[in-house]
Amino acid sequence: MKKEIKRFRITKGDEKIKVAWKLVREVAKYSHSGPFWKFLEENFGIKEKDVKEIMRFLEQVGEVEIHRSIDGKRLYVSTLKDIKENPIKLDRWLK
Questions:
Q1: Rounded to 5 degrees, what angle do the CA atoms 33, 36, 37 make?
Q2: Residues 8, 10, 12, 14: is their CA dihedral positive or negative?
Q3: N or C: which end of the chain has fewer CB within 10 A?
Q4: How far is the C-alpha of 51 from the C-alpha of 27, rounded, in Å?
Q5: What is the pLDDT of residues 55-89, one digit of tens each?
Q6: Contact of 23 with 76, CB cutoff 8 Å
Q7: Are strands 74-75 and 67-68 parallel, antiparallel or unpaired?
Q8: What is the mean pLDDT of the chain?
């Protein structure tokens, strides 16, 4: 997965979106594991800030909507759990 993060940083355009989605889907597989960020760091060497950066990018281009708490904070792990459980939303099928 570290290679995918490096690839995300150097690609542009539609390819960047594809790489970001691939990484987010891969990370979402582990969203129900213990302390999530610690699990990713220990097992894959992936830092929390890298995953958050990729998710914010996807939100900026309109690909994903990160869940928010009542006070407006972003809920990254909840969003990843939702992606894992519902990988393709109805609006994707309509496009």
A1: 155
A2: negative
A3: C
A4: 8
A5: 999 999 988 888 898 998 888 888 888 888 776 65
A6: no
A7: antiparallel
A8: 85
